[in-house]
Design brief:
Strand content: under 5%
Structural class: mainly alpha
Oligomer: single chain
Radius of gyration: 24 Å
Number of helices: 4
Largest sheet: none
Order of helices and strands: HHHH
């Protein structure tokens, strides 16, 4: 009888642990904090769409879309490109 109770407890605890880990992992895949792809924004601006329309298309906020209108940033300044090869 004790073995059955212990097995039930272990099974229940394992199930609850999997449920909690699964639910907490869902927030990791949320798109609310993802950065906006500025290349997409520039393409849609060129097509004549407003920031509100672009934000709606990308499920983002207008301020994230508006941040793409600023000066371009070169993120490859520290990248070493070999002169020969490749």
């Amino acid at each position: 009888m004790q073995r059955r109770i212990r097995n039930t407890f272990v099974t229940t605890a394992s199930g609850l642990l999997l449920l909690v880990v699964g639910l907490s992992g869902c927030s990791m895949f949320s798109t609310s904090n993802d950065p906006v792809d500025c290349n997409v924004v520039k393409t849609q601006v060129a097509a004549g769409q407003t920031d509100a329309q672009i934000a709606s298309n990308l499920n983002a906020t207008e301020d994230k879309v508006a941040a793409c209108h600023g000066p371009e940033h070169d993120t490859n300044k520290t990248t070493i490109v070999p002169e020969k090869g490749y």
